[in-house]
Amino acid sequence: MGDVKLEHVSKHYDDVTAVDDMNLEINDGEFICLVGPSGCGKSTTMEMIAGLTIPSEGKVFIGDREVTNLPPKDRGVAMVFQNIALFPHMDVYDNISFGLRLRNYDKEEIDRRVERASEIVQLGGMLERMPDEMSGGQRQRVAIARAIVRNPDVFLMDEPLANLDAKLRVHMRTELQRLHKELDTTIVYVTHDQAEAMTMSDRIAVIDSGQLQQIDPPLVCYNEPANLFVAGFIGSPSMNFLDGEITENGFVSTNIDVEFDPANVGVEVGRDVTMGIRPEDVYLVQNERQVANPTHRIEATTDVLEPMGDEIFVYLKLAEEAHADLEEASVAANDQLLMSVSPDSDIEEDRDVEVVLDRTRVHLFDTETGIALSHGIESTIQASGPADAEAESDD
Ligand code: ADP
């Protein structure tokens, strides 16, 4: 069985805590990506599952066995790394079968496994090629086949596509998804690339500073990020953030206000909050009708435009909101907002525009702790209608 469980696992190196009290449950057959910035502890977490690193604290389970102190060979795992270490003097067949030959499997069994694995990674006709006669992508497939022949319960992959060029990387992503479907085996995959994590995994484990921030399906991490870190890390370009505070009228900041009844969102008046909105949830006022529940119009000036082909990124400079109830000094001004518009838009640089935000896509976070307070504020406003009416009729 390929479930993997980390129970209160930490790893300290002198005064560096690489992994900090990690609790992780990976289901049998799941494709999980460990994702986070460089140095956040992804590889160390993976190495503790693999048995290459022993935790300072906590326990590791694979299936129903505790494996915390077992060597890698006794864990039923197979690893694929970023640096593909193929034996240069061996052909593809010998590279794939090396581990099996070392373990004295009989020739027929080795042939059978190599044939199946090489078919899965589509290297069937290349078993006699030498590594230097192959492309980077083909060599990486040999490395994956070498892992497949071991029939592991769990595949561990640490940035296996990092050294490939962009096009091949995208192609290999699809191959890995196909491989996962075909093998129906647990895959734990380390990457710093959130796009890779979003496209391949059943669930993403987002890690920062050695701590698990959120583990959820990709779209849940995208639409309902648990905190500011996940909100900023998942999605490219990143979510816009504006610091402000909660008043009787909702969120106010130097540059953007969003009206709502704080009681309906469950946030108390006076709290410092950070509002988040993704670039695709900011609309030019002429497209306002595409938004079911827009905010009031916000004045801005277009700054730099970045045409991407399928969309244009527009950097906006915001005008100051005119309101009296904000304690100016308490809120840092952020007059930048990134908007994405369709490529057929006739937008130009240095123009005065008005934009609206989709209220259902407005996120609120506690500024101090970073914890998410609310994702979308439309439903709570609408829900307040009938509830209020009921309360009134009760009177
Ligand atoms: P990631 O894979 O997310 O880039 P790592 O797990 O490699 O991060 O590293 C997490 C932290 O632990 C980093 O600060 C790194 O410098 C530190 N670290 C990792 N391995 C060692 C080691 N063998 N000795 C000392 N520090 C280490």
TrEMBL record:
One of its GO terms (molecular function) is ATP binding. The complex is composed of two ATP-binding proteins (XacJ and XacK), two transmembrane proteins (XacH and XacI) and a solute-binding protein (XacG). This is ABC-type D-xylose/L-arabinose transporter. One of its GO terms (cellular component) is ATP-binding cassette (ABC) transporter complex, substrate-binding subunit-containing. It comes from the Archaea. Part of the ABC transporter complex XacGHIJK involved in the uptake of xylose and arabinose. Responsible for energy coupling to the transport system. Residues 4-234 form the ABC transporter domain. It catalyses: D-xylose(out) + ATP + H2O = D-xylose(in) + ADP + phosphate + H(+); L-arabinose(out) + ATP + H2O = L-arabinose(in) + ADP + phosphate + H(+). Gene3D superfamilies: 2.40.50.100, Nucleic acid-binding proteins, P-loop containing nucleotide triphosphate hydrolases. Pfam families: ABC_tran, OB_MalK. GO terms for biological process: carbohydrate transport. It comes from Haloferax elongans ATCC BAA-1513. Keywords: ATP-binding, Nucleotide-binding, Transport. The lineage of its organism: Archaea, Methanobacteriati, Methanobacteriota, Stenosarchaea group, Halobacteria. It is a peripheral membrane protein. Coiled coil: none annotated. Signal peptide: none annotated. Its EC number is 7.5.2.13. It is found in: Cell membrane. Residues 376-395 are annotated as: Disordered. Belongs to the ABC transporter superfamily. Carbohydrate uptake transporter-1 (CUT1) (TC 3.A.1.1) family.
